[in-house]
Amino acid sequence: KLKETHRDILSIENSYQDIKAEQSKLDVLISHSMDHLNDDYHLTFEAAKDLYEQDEPIDTLRQKVKLTKMSIEELGPVNLNAIEQFEEVYERFTFLDEQRTDLREAKATLEQIIREMDQAVMDRFKTTFHAVQGHFSEVFKSLFGGGQAELKLTDDDYLTAGVEIIVQPPGKKLQHLSLLSGGERALSAIALLFALLKVRSAPFVILDEVEAALDEANVIRYANYLRQLSEKTQFIVITHRKGTMEAADRLYGITMQESGVSKLVSVNLNTIDEVLKEEEK
């Protein structure tokens, strides 16, 4: 009986040693797991237990951890300067965003100014166009001794429309300016010029042989109308036509009596009668 008791004691001691060995293994595993938890996740056991209370099976959780690690690895290495780079990029972004806002505000202001200018130009052009249109018809009849003429816009938009000149000299059908003869085109252009001067007179105008293509009858009508406009505008007219010279107040001629030597000759037509009378005496 003593031997059996002794064997039981030995058996118990062996079981105890086995349990201690198993406990040591578990202690090592627990220590390893705690180190792993601290090194990889920066957590203590107590913190992990409080933060992550899971009722799922351990295999499922391990699978989630594995997938999460794979996702992290796919992101690549961690950029330790990311925060500083982000601050630099964000500062640059903020600056550019402010610049973009300023540009948009400036653009809106410029567009408003352009709309106001377009409206002002349209109003002034509309007023001037209709005024010139009325005077053009009157001047045309005076220069041609009859007929009719009109100005037409090619479009309803005053800012983009072109202007067509439609005229009908006496005895002819209404037609476009390009279908007229050279003299008729010249006289029509002169009529438009005089219409512009009647709407907005200029203090000083130079005309360089504008009546060169006109016949004598039209030259006389042109000169007489020029004489009417000279009440508000001073004209310097370069011409070779006798009818234009007769309507002038003063003539200036360039002659070359000697080779290579030019000489200026002037005549005041307003006092020519008095000069002739004195010469007769």
From TrEMBL:
| Pfam families membership | SMC_N (PF02463)
**Keyword terms of this UniProt record:** ATP-binding, Coiled coil, Cytoplasm, DNA-binding, Nucleotide-binding
The parts of the chain that form a coiled coil are: 96-123
Domain RecF/RecN/SMC N-terminal stretches: 98-263
TM regions (residue ranges)? none
Q: Which InterPro entries match?
A: P-loop_NTPase (IPR027417), RecF/RecN/SMC_N (IPR003395)
GO molecular function annotations of the record? ATP binding; DNA binding
Localization terms from the record: Cytoplasm
Q: Please indicate which superkingdom the organism of origin belongs to.
A: Bacteria
Which GO cellular component terms are attached? cytoplasm
Protein name (database record) = Chromosome segregation protein SMC
